[in-house]
Amino acid sequence: xxxxxxxxxxxxxxxxxxxxxxxxxxxxxxxxxxxxxxxxxxxxxxxxxxxxxxxxxxxxxxxxxxxxxxxxxxxxxxxxxxxxxxxxxxxxxxxxxxxxxxxxxxxxxxxxxxxxxxxxxxxxxxxxxxxxxxxxxxxxxxxxxxxxxxxxxxxxxxxxx
Amino acid sequence: xxxxxxxxxxxxxxxxxxxxxxxxxxxxxxxxxxxxxxxxxxxxxxxxxxxxxxxxxxxxxxxxxxxxxxxxxxxxxxxxxxxxxxxxxxxxxxxxxxxxxxxxxxxxxxxxxxxxxxxxxxxxxxxxxxxxxxxxxxxxxxxxxxxxxxxxxxxxxxxxxxxxxxxxxxxxxxxxxxxxxxxxxxxxxxxxxxxxxxxxxxxxxxxxxxxxxxxxxxxxxxxxxxxxxxxxxxxxxxxxxxxxxxxxxxxxxxxxxxxxxxxxxxxxxxxx
Lengths: 161, 272
Hints:
The complex is a heterodimer of chains A (about 160) and B (about 270).
Chain A: H1 3-14, E1 18-20, E2 32-37, H2 45-50, E3 54-55, E4 58-65, E5 76-79, H3 87-94, E6 100-103, E7 115-120, E8 123-129, H4 130-135, E9 138-140, H5 142-146, E10 150-152
Parallel strand pairs in A: 2-4, 2-5, 5-6, 6-7, 8-10
Antiparallel strand pairs in A: 1-9, 3-4, 7-8
Chain B: H1 9-58, H2 60-64, H3 68-76, E1 84-91, E2 96-101, E3 121-126, E4 129-138, E5 141-151, H4 153-205, H5 220-236, H6 242-249, H7 259-268
Antiparallel strand pairs in B: 1-2, 1-5, 3-4, 4-5
Protein backbone atom coordinates (compact mmCIF):
# COMPACT_ATOMS: atom_id res chain seq x y z
CA UNK A 1 0.00 0.00 0.00
CA UNK A 2 1.45 3.43 -0.93
CA UNK A 3 2.89 5.38 1.99
CA UNK A 4 0.41 8.24 1.76
CA UNK A 5 -2.56 5.90 1.58
CA UNK A 6 -1.39 4.42 4.89
CA UNK A 7 -0.94 7.93 6.34
CA UNK A 8 -4.43 8.88 5.17
CA UNK A 9 -5.85 5.82 6.93
CA UNK A 10 -3.90 6.62 10.08
CA UNK A 11 -5.08 10.23 10.02
CA UNK A 12 -8.68 9.07 9.97
CA UNK A 13 -7.98 6.43 12.63
CA UNK A 14 -6.44 9.02 14.98
CA UNK A 15 -9.90 10.56 15.15
CA UNK A 16 -11.21 7.39 16.81
CA UNK A 17 -8.77 7.68 19.70
CA UNK A 18 -8.75 11.38 20.48
CA UNK A 19 -11.09 12.95 23.02
CA UNK A 20 -11.70 16.62 23.59
CA UNK A 21 -11.63 17.72 27.22
CA UNK A 22 -13.82 19.28 28.42
CA UNK A 23 -16.30 17.44 26.20
CA UNK A 24 -17.81 20.69 24.89
CA UNK A 25 -14.45 21.66 23.36
CA UNK A 26 -15.66 19.93 20.20
CA UNK A 27 -19.31 20.72 20.88
CA UNK A 28 -19.53 23.89 18.78
CA UNK A 29 -18.35 22.07 15.71
CA UNK A 30 -20.96 20.83 13.29
CA UNK A 31 -18.53 18.46 11.59
CA UNK A 32 -15.46 16.50 12.50
CA UNK A 33 -13.07 18.28 10.16
CA UNK A 34 -9.77 16.72 9.15
CA UNK A 35 -7.87 19.64 7.68
CA UNK A 36 -4.85 19.52 5.42
CA UNK A 37 -2.67 22.59 5.71
CA UNK A 38 -0.44 23.20 2.68
CA UNK A 39 -0.06 20.93 -0.33
CA UNK A 40 -2.15 17.77 -0.17
CA UNK A 41 -0.03 14.63 -0.64
CA UNK A 42 -2.90 12.33 0.41
CA UNK A 43 -4.99 12.82 -2.69
CA UNK A 44 -8.46 11.27 -2.88
CA UNK A 45 -7.64 8.46 -0.47
CA UNK A 46 -8.66 10.43 2.60
CA UNK A 47 -11.87 11.59 0.90
CA UNK A 48 -12.73 7.99 0.04
CA UNK A 49 -11.96 6.77 3.53
CA UNK A 50 -14.04 9.40 5.28
CA UNK A 51 -17.02 9.26 2.95
CA UNK A 52 -20.23 8.80 4.99
CA UNK A 53 -18.17 8.28 8.14
CA UNK A 54 -18.80 9.79 11.56
CA UNK A 55 -16.39 10.51 14.39
CA UNK A 56 -17.39 11.78 17.81
CA UNK A 57 -20.99 11.69 16.54
CA UNK A 58 -20.27 14.18 13.76
CA UNK A 59 -19.91 13.69 10.02
CA UNK A 60 -16.30 13.63 8.92
CA UNK A 61 -15.19 16.23 6.36
CA UNK A 62 -11.86 16.68 4.67
CA UNK A 63 -10.97 20.36 4.36
CA UNK A 64 -7.96 21.69 2.48
CA UNK A 65 -6.53 24.96 3.85
CA UNK A 66 -3.74 27.31 2.87
CA UNK A 67 -2.86 28.56 6.34
CA UNK A 68 -2.84 27.02 9.78
CA UNK A 69 -4.75 29.94 11.22
CA UNK A 70 -7.81 28.72 9.31
CA UNK A 71 -7.53 25.33 11.00
CA UNK A 72 -8.64 26.43 14.47
CA UNK A 73 -12.10 24.91 13.99
CA UNK A 74 -10.66 21.62 12.75
CA UNK A 75 -10.53 18.51 14.91
CA UNK A 76 -7.36 17.23 13.28
CA UNK A 77 -4.87 19.38 11.38
CA UNK A 78 -2.42 17.60 9.12
CA UNK A 79 0.45 19.96 8.41
CA UNK A 80 1.95 18.97 5.12
CA UNK A 81 5.69 18.57 4.70
CA UNK A 82 5.38 21.30 2.05
CA UNK A 83 5.04 23.79 4.91
CA UNK A 84 8.79 23.30 5.51
CA UNK A 85 10.12 26.06 7.73
CA UNK A 86 6.60 27.43 8.32
CA UNK A 87 5.71 24.45 10.52
CA UNK A 88 6.79 26.26 13.67
CA UNK A 89 4.56 29.26 12.77
CA UNK A 90 1.70 26.92 11.94
CA UNK A 91 2.01 25.28 15.35
CA UNK A 92 2.13 28.72 17.02
CA UNK A 93 -1.11 29.61 15.24
CA UNK A 94 -2.79 26.51 16.69
CA UNK A 95 -1.20 26.61 20.14
CA UNK A 96 -3.74 26.11 22.94
CA UNK A 97 -6.50 25.20 20.46
CA UNK A 98 -8.24 21.80 20.82
CA UNK A 99 -6.83 20.63 17.49
CA UNK A 100 -4.81 17.44 17.08
CA UNK A 101 -1.77 18.37 15.04
CA UNK A 102 -0.20 15.71 12.83
CA UNK A 103 2.65 15.92 10.36
CA UNK A 104 5.42 13.94 8.73
CA UNK A 105 7.82 16.90 8.91
CA UNK A 106 11.15 16.29 10.61
CA UNK A 107 11.41 17.51 14.21
CA UNK A 108 7.65 18.11 14.29
CA UNK A 109 7.44 16.70 17.82
CA UNK A 110 10.37 18.80 18.99
CA UNK A 111 8.68 21.89 17.56
CA UNK A 112 5.59 21.31 19.67
CA UNK A 113 3.54 19.12 17.34
CA UNK A 114 1.46 16.27 18.75
CA UNK A 115 1.84 13.31 16.37
CA UNK A 116 4.63 12.77 13.88
CA UNK A 117 4.68 10.09 11.22
CA UNK A 118 7.91 8.10 11.15
CA UNK A 119 8.85 5.56 8.50
CA UNK A 120 10.63 2.60 10.00
CA UNK A 121 11.59 -0.50 8.05
CA UNK A 122 9.12 0.38 5.30
CA UNK A 123 6.37 0.69 7.88
CA UNK A 124 4.61 3.90 8.72
CA UNK A 125 4.66 4.44 12.46
CA UNK A 126 4.08 7.48 14.61
CA UNK A 127 5.49 9.24 17.65
CA UNK A 128 3.44 11.15 20.19
CA UNK A 129 4.21 14.28 22.22
CA UNK A 130 1.93 14.10 25.24
CA UNK A 131 2.92 17.55 26.54
CA UNK A 132 1.53 19.17 23.41
CA UNK A 133 -1.59 16.97 23.62
CA UNK A 134 -2.15 17.97 27.25
CA UNK A 135 -1.63 21.69 26.54
CA UNK A 136 -4.37 21.56 23.91
CA UNK A 137 -6.72 19.91 26.47
CA UNK A 138 -6.94 16.74 24.43
CA UNK A 139 -6.70 13.13 25.51
CA UNK A 140 -5.37 10.22 23.54
CA UNK A 141 -6.48 6.66 24.18
CA UNK A 142 -3.95 4.45 25.91
CA UNK A 143 -4.65 1.97 23.10
CA UNK A 144 -3.27 4.48 20.62
CA UNK A 145 -0.24 5.18 22.78
CA UNK A 146 0.40 1.44 22.95
CA UNK A 147 1.08 1.27 19.22
CA UNK A 148 3.06 4.51 19.05
CA UNK A 149 6.75 4.07 18.28
CA UNK A 150 7.61 6.58 21.00
CA UNK A 151 5.71 8.63 23.52
CA UNK A 152 7.36 11.68 24.99
CA UNK A 153 6.19 14.12 27.63
CA UNK A 154 4.11 13.73 30.70
CA UNK A 155 0.78 12.04 30.23
CA UNK A 156 -2.34 14.06 31.06
CA UNK A 157 -4.13 13.37 34.31
CA UNK A 158 -6.71 11.30 32.49
CA UNK A 159 -5.28 9.19 29.73
CA UNK A 160 -8.24 7.49 28.10
CA UNK A 161 -8.54 3.82 28.79
CA UNK B 1 -41.99 -69.96 48.20
CA UNK B 2 -38.64 -68.71 46.98
CA UNK B 3 -38.68 -64.93 46.90
CA UNK B 4 -36.31 -64.71 43.87
CA UNK B 5 -37.89 -67.42 41.78
CA UNK B 6 -38.63 -66.03 38.35
CA UNK B 7 -41.93 -67.93 38.30
CA UNK B 8 -43.17 -66.53 41.62
CA UNK B 9 -45.24 -63.38 41.82
CA UNK B 10 -42.68 -62.06 44.29
CA UNK B 11 -39.86 -62.68 41.84
CA UNK B 12 -41.79 -61.17 38.96
CA UNK B 13 -42.72 -58.15 41.07
CA UNK B 14 -39.07 -57.65 41.98
CA UNK B 15 -38.03 -58.08 38.35
CA UNK B 16 -40.67 -55.55 37.31
CA UNK B 17 -39.47 -52.97 39.81
CA UNK B 18 -35.82 -53.60 38.90
CA UNK B 19 -36.61 -53.28 35.21
CA UNK B 20 -38.74 -50.12 35.54
CA UNK B 21 -36.43 -48.35 37.98
CA UNK B 22 -33.40 -49.48 35.96
CA UNK B 23 -34.84 -48.08 32.73
CA UNK B 24 -35.84 -44.82 34.50
CA UNK B 25 -32.40 -44.41 36.08
CA UNK B 26 -30.63 -45.26 32.85
CA UNK B 27 -32.70 -42.74 30.87
CA UNK B 28 -32.06 -40.08 33.52
CA UNK B 29 -28.33 -40.93 33.47
CA UNK B 30 -28.03 -40.72 29.69
CA UNK B 31 -30.07 -37.47 29.63
CA UNK B 32 -27.93 -35.84 32.33
CA UNK B 33 -24.75 -37.02 30.65
CA UNK B 34 -25.84 -35.58 27.30
CA UNK B 35 -26.93 -32.33 28.97
CA UNK B 36 -23.67 -32.09 30.89
CA UNK B 37 -21.57 -32.64 27.78
CA UNK B 38 -23.65 -30.08 25.87
CA UNK B 39 -23.32 -27.54 28.74
CA UNK B 40 -19.58 -28.08 29.08
CA UNK B 41 -19.14 -27.71 25.34
CA UNK B 42 -21.17 -24.49 25.28
CA UNK B 43 -19.25 -23.15 28.28
CA UNK B 44 -15.98 -23.82 26.47
CA UNK B 45 -17.27 -22.05 23.33
CA UNK B 46 -18.41 -19.07 25.42
CA UNK B 47 -15.13 -18.97 27.31
CA UNK B 48 -13.01 -19.13 24.15
CA UNK B 49 -15.23 -16.59 22.43
CA UNK B 50 -14.92 -14.13 25.32
CA UNK B 51 -11.14 -14.50 25.09
CA UNK B 52 -11.32 -13.95 21.33
CA UNK B 53 -13.45 -10.87 21.98
CA UNK B 54 -10.87 -9.50 24.44
CA UNK B 55 -8.06 -10.19 21.98
CA UNK B 56 -10.08 -8.44 19.29
CA UNK B 57 -10.70 -5.35 21.43
CA UNK B 58 -7.05 -5.12 22.36
CA UNK B 59 -5.91 -5.64 18.77
CA UNK B 60 -8.03 -2.88 17.27
CA UNK B 61 -5.28 -0.27 17.25
CA UNK B 62 -2.70 -2.85 16.22
CA UNK B 63 -4.77 -3.61 13.13
CA UNK B 64 -5.66 0.02 12.43
CA UNK B 65 -2.04 1.11 12.69
CA UNK B 66 -0.50 -2.04 11.21
CA UNK B 67 1.43 -2.94 14.35
CA UNK B 68 1.99 -6.70 14.20
CA UNK B 69 4.25 -6.66 17.25
CA UNK B 70 1.50 -5.11 19.38
CA UNK B 71 -0.94 -7.74 18.11
CA UNK B 72 1.50 -10.54 18.92
CA UNK B 73 1.99 -9.08 22.40
CA UNK B 74 -1.78 -9.12 22.86
CA UNK B 75 -1.97 -12.71 21.63
CA UNK B 76 0.82 -13.78 23.97
CA UNK B 77 -1.56 -13.17 26.88
CA UNK B 78 -3.13 -16.50 25.87
CA UNK B 79 -0.16 -18.28 27.44
CA UNK B 80 -2.26 -18.40 30.60
CA UNK B 81 -4.83 -20.60 28.88
CA UNK B 82 -3.25 -24.05 28.39
CA UNK B 83 -6.24 -25.35 26.40
CA UNK B 84 -5.50 -22.88 23.59
CA UNK B 85 -3.27 -24.41 20.92
CA UNK B 86 -3.09 -21.62 18.39
CA UNK B 87 -4.53 -18.15 17.89
CA UNK B 88 -4.24 -16.01 14.82
CA UNK B 89 -5.38 -12.57 13.79
CA UNK B 90 -6.25 -11.96 10.18
CA UNK B 91 -6.64 -8.56 8.54
CA UNK B 92 -9.90 -7.65 6.84
CA UNK B 93 -8.56 -8.98 3.52
CA UNK B 94 -7.91 -12.35 5.26
CA UNK B 95 -4.13 -12.00 5.18
CA UNK B 96 -2.38 -13.34 8.31
CA UNK B 97 -1.47 -10.52 10.67
CA UNK B 98 -0.25 -12.02 13.96
CA UNK B 99 -0.03 -15.54 15.36
CA UNK B 100 0.42 -17.28 18.69
CA UNK B 101 1.23 -20.96 19.13
CA UNK B 102 1.38 -22.71 22.48
CA UNK B 103 4.77 -24.10 23.32
CA UNK B 104 4.95 -27.78 22.56
CA UNK B 105 1.80 -27.80 20.46
CA UNK B 106 1.68 -28.68 16.80
CA UNK B 107 2.92 -25.39 15.28
CA UNK B 108 2.16 -26.69 11.81
CA UNK B 109 -1.58 -26.48 12.33
CA UNK B 110 -2.72 -23.67 10.13
CA UNK B 111 -5.92 -21.80 10.63
CA UNK B 112 -7.88 -21.07 7.50
CA UNK B 113 -10.12 -18.01 7.91
CA UNK B 114 -13.66 -19.18 7.23
CA UNK B 115 -15.95 -16.80 9.11
CA UNK B 116 -19.02 -16.45 6.89
CA UNK B 117 -19.49 -12.95 5.44
CA UNK B 118 -21.71 -10.74 7.58
CA UNK B 119 -21.06 -12.82 10.70
CA UNK B 120 -18.89 -11.75 13.62
CA UNK B 121 -18.84 -15.09 15.42
CA UNK B 122 -18.70 -18.77 14.50
CA UNK B 123 -17.46 -21.95 16.18
CA UNK B 124 -16.48 -25.31 14.76
CA UNK B 125 -15.73 -28.54 16.64
CA UNK B 126 -13.65 -31.13 14.85
CA UNK B 127 -11.19 -33.88 15.79
CA UNK B 128 -11.09 -32.99 19.48
CA UNK B 129 -10.50 -29.30 18.84
CA UNK B 130 -12.66 -26.21 18.92
CA UNK B 131 -12.09 -23.35 16.50
CA UNK B 132 -13.73 -20.03 17.33
CA UNK B 133 -13.73 -17.11 14.92
CA UNK B 134 -14.55 -13.63 16.19
CA UNK B 135 -14.72 -10.48 14.10
CA UNK B 136 -12.78 -7.37 15.14
CA UNK B 137 -14.65 -4.16 14.45
CA UNK B 138 -13.84 -0.49 14.59
CA UNK B 139 -16.54 2.11 14.20
CA UNK B 140 -18.93 -0.70 13.25
CA UNK B 141 -16.72 -1.93 10.42
CA UNK B 142 -14.95 -5.27 10.26
CA UNK B 143 -11.21 -4.62 10.33
CA UNK B 144 -10.04 -8.16 11.04
CA UNK B 145 -10.81 -11.53 12.59
CA UNK B 146 -9.27 -13.44 15.42
CA UNK B 147 -9.36 -17.24 15.40
CA UNK B 148 -8.61 -19.37 18.44
CA UNK B 149 -8.01 -23.10 18.22
CA UNK B 150 -8.48 -24.90 21.55
CA UNK B 151 -8.49 -28.47 22.76
CA UNK B 152 -11.79 -29.99 23.85
CA UNK B 153 -9.94 -32.55 25.99
CA UNK B 154 -11.11 -30.85 29.19
CA UNK B 155 -14.74 -31.11 28.10
CA UNK B 156 -14.42 -34.85 27.47
CA UNK B 157 -12.45 -35.30 30.71
CA UNK B 158 -15.03 -33.37 32.77
CA UNK B 159 -17.91 -35.19 31.08
CA UNK B 160 -16.24 -38.52 31.88
CA UNK B 161 -15.73 -37.49 35.50
CA UNK B 162 -19.37 -36.47 35.71
CA UNK B 163 -20.38 -39.73 34.03
CA UNK B 164 -18.36 -41.80 36.49
CA UNK B 165 -19.68 -39.90 39.49
CA UNK B 166 -23.24 -40.19 38.16
CA UNK B 167 -22.76 -43.90 37.51
CA UNK B 168 -21.80 -44.44 41.16
CA UNK B 169 -24.90 -42.49 42.24
CA UNK B 170 -26.97 -44.51 39.77
CA UNK B 171 -25.74 -47.83 41.18
CA UNK B 172 -26.39 -46.62 44.76
CA UNK B 173 -29.91 -45.48 43.79
CA UNK B 174 -30.49 -48.81 42.06
CA UNK B 175 -29.41 -50.74 45.16
CA UNK B 176 -31.62 -48.56 47.38
CA UNK B 177 -34.57 -49.13 45.02
CA UNK B 178 -33.89 -52.89 45.13
CA UNK B 179 -33.70 -52.91 48.94
CA UNK B 180 -36.85 -50.81 49.23
CA UNK B 181 -38.63 -53.21 46.88
CA UNK B 182 -37.45 -56.22 48.90
CA UNK B 183 -38.65 -54.60 52.11
CA UNK B 184 -41.97 -53.39 50.79
CA UNK B 185 -42.99 -56.29 48.59
CA UNK B 186 -43.76 -58.28 51.78
CA UNK B 187 -46.82 -56.18 52.51
CA UNK B 188 -48.21 -57.09 49.10
CA UNK B 189 -46.96 -60.62 48.73
CA UNK B 190 -47.30 -61.95 52.30
CA UNK B 191 -51.14 -62.16 52.32
CA UNK B 192 -50.96 -63.92 48.96
CA UNK B 193 -48.33 -66.31 50.27
CA UNK B 194 -50.48 -66.92 53.37
CA UNK B 195 -53.45 -67.64 51.17
CA UNK B 196 -51.40 -70.01 49.03
CA UNK B 197 -50.07 -71.73 52.19
CA UNK B 198 -53.62 -72.11 53.56
CA UNK B 199 -54.78 -73.55 50.25
CA UNK B 200 -51.83 -75.95 50.36
CA UNK B 201 -52.75 -77.16 53.88
CA UNK B 202 -56.37 -77.68 52.85
CA UNK B 203 -55.28 -79.51 49.75
CA UNK B 204 -52.86 -81.80 51.59
CA UNK B 205 -54.78 -82.45 54.86
CA UNK B 206 -58.39 -81.94 53.72
CA UNK B 207 -58.78 -79.72 56.73
CA UNK B 208 -61.44 -77.21 55.80
CA UNK B 209 -61.37 -75.60 59.21
CA UNK B 210 -58.10 -73.83 58.38
CA UNK B 211 -58.57 -70.09 57.87
CA UNK B 212 -56.40 -67.75 55.87
CA UNK B 213 -55.28 -64.74 57.90
CA UNK B 214 -57.18 -61.63 56.72
CA UNK B 215 -54.91 -58.58 56.44
CA UNK B 216 -55.94 -55.74 58.68
CA UNK B 217 -56.68 -53.35 55.85
CA UNK B 218 -59.29 -52.59 53.25
CA UNK B 219 -57.84 -53.72 49.93
CA UNK B 220 -58.14 -56.47 47.33
CA UNK B 221 -55.94 -58.85 49.38
CA UNK B 222 -58.22 -58.54 52.41
CA UNK B 223 -61.21 -59.11 50.16
CA UNK B 224 -59.57 -62.17 48.60
CA UNK B 225 -58.67 -63.68 52.00
CA UNK B 226 -62.14 -63.02 53.37
CA UNK B 227 -63.76 -64.47 50.26
CA UNK B 228 -61.49 -67.51 50.52
CA UNK B 229 -62.47 -68.06 54.15
CA UNK B 230 -66.14 -67.61 53.23
CA UNK B 231 -65.84 -70.27 50.54
CA UNK B 232 -64.33 -72.61 53.16
CA UNK B 233 -67.37 -72.07 55.36
CA UNK B 234 -69.55 -72.90 52.36
CA UNK B 235 -67.56 -76.05 51.69
CA UNK B 236 -68.00 -77.10 55.39
CA UNK B 237 -71.72 -76.44 55.38
CA UNK B 238 -74.02 -79.50 56.03
CA UNK B 239 -75.24 -81.53 53.07
CA UNK B 240 -78.83 -80.56 53.81
CA UNK B 241 -78.19 -77.39 51.85
CA UNK B 242 -78.09 -78.96 48.40
CA UNK B 243 -78.91 -75.72 46.63
CA UNK B 244 -75.51 -74.40 47.53
CA UNK B 245 -73.39 -77.21 46.08
CA UNK B 246 -75.81 -77.70 43.21
CA UNK B 247 -75.60 -74.09 42.27
CA UNK B 248 -71.80 -74.30 42.34
CA UNK B 249 -71.54 -77.59 40.45
CA UNK B 250 -74.34 -77.29 37.94
CA UNK B 251 -74.04 -73.72 36.94
CA UNK B 252 -74.04 -73.81 33.10
CA UNK B 253 -72.44 -70.43 32.77
CA UNK B 254 -69.21 -69.12 34.26
CA UNK B 255 -69.66 -67.69 37.71
CA UNK B 256 -70.04 -63.94 37.78
CA UNK B 257 -70.03 -61.54 40.67
CA UNK B 258 -73.60 -60.92 41.74
CA UNK B 259 -74.93 -57.76 43.30
CA UNK B 260 -74.68 -59.52 46.68
CA UNK B 261 -71.02 -60.30 46.07
CA UNK B 262 -70.42 -56.72 45.14
CA UNK B 263 -72.04 -55.61 48.37
CA UNK B 264 -69.84 -57.89 50.43
CA UNK B 265 -66.83 -56.58 48.50
CA UNK B 266 -67.99 -53.06 49.16
CA UNK B 267 -67.94 -53.69 52.85
CA UNK B 268 -64.20 -54.22 52.57
CA UNK B 269 -63.03 -52.05 49.73
CA UNK B 270 -63.24 -48.30 50.20
CA UNK B 271 -63.15 -47.75 46.41
CA UNK B 272 -66.47 -49.47 45.96
